[in-house]
Every structure is written in C-alpha cells, then in structure tokens.
User: Which sequence fits this backbone?
C-alpha cells in the first residue's frame, strides 16, 4: 500500500538512503533532520507513518514520541524507531516509550521497503481491529 511517510534522521546519508528506497516503491516521503523539525512536519502534514532515528540533536526520538503522544492530532500516527541499539536495554526502552515498532540500523537496502510495508500493514490492522470484548 502507498503511504505518506515522514522520515526523521540527522544522518544525511541514512536519510537519503531511506528516502530513496521508499520513494522507489511509490511512497510519498516527507523529511526532517531532527525531532523538532519532525514534530512540526507531523503536525502540519499528518503522515500515515513516522520513521524516526533516536539519537538526534535539538530533539531526540524519545522527546519526539512524548510530544507526539501528548498532541491529540498526532497521538494515533504509528511511529517506528530507527535504532542502532547501542545500549543494553534500548529495545525495551523503545517499546515502553510508545513506539509502534523498530528497525535496526544499518538500513538493509534489499529489505527496508518490505519491512516498512509489514509495519504499515500491521499498524493499519491494529488500528482497524475492534476492541476486544470483555
Ligand atoms: Mn542520529
């Protein structure tokens, strides 16, 4: 499925690689270089999915997701962390922070767009699932 995807990453080479791979399969791509820029774009453009680096200047990925979840206009947008998992415990910290999933860096060019497609599908299914009955 085609989607509007906001990519937030301070590493220009990673940002360009992700943009290239996702645009190649037809997604509309929005770009930001840090969490503060990304928050502005998310609020203005309401993307279908956000893919965000964690370690960034100005506003990191953890501050970003806290701000997104605090904003009723953005709190339901799925957010995927792009992480190097450099520290022990990063994986559980990412999910506890409210991210809807994560992809480990380095970006794998042959798998990235398929990984994003899977995450789009699973998050759309989750959004459409009726609440579990008591
Ligand atoms: Mn970074």
Assistant:
């Amino acid at each position: 499925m085609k989607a509007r995807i906001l990519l937030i990453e301070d590493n220009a080479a990673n940002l360009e690689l992700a943009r290239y791979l996702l645009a190649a399969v037809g997604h509309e791509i929005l770009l930001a270089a840090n969490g503060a820029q990304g928050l502005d774009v998310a609020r203005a453009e309401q993307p279908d999915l956000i893919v965000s680096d964690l370690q960034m200047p100005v506003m990191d990925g953890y501050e970003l997701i806290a701000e997104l979840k605090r904003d009723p206009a953005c709190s339901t947008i799925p957010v995927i962390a792009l992480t190097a998992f450099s520290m022990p415990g990063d994986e559980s910290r990412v999910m506890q922070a409210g991210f809807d999933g994560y992809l480990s860096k380095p970006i794998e060019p042959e798998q990235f767009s398929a990984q994003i497609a899977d995450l789009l599908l699973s998050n759309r299914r989750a959004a459409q699932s009726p609440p579990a009955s008591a």
About this structure: The first strand starts at residue 4 and ends at 8. The chain has a mean pLDDT of 91. The CA atoms of residues 18 and 108 lie 10 Å apart.
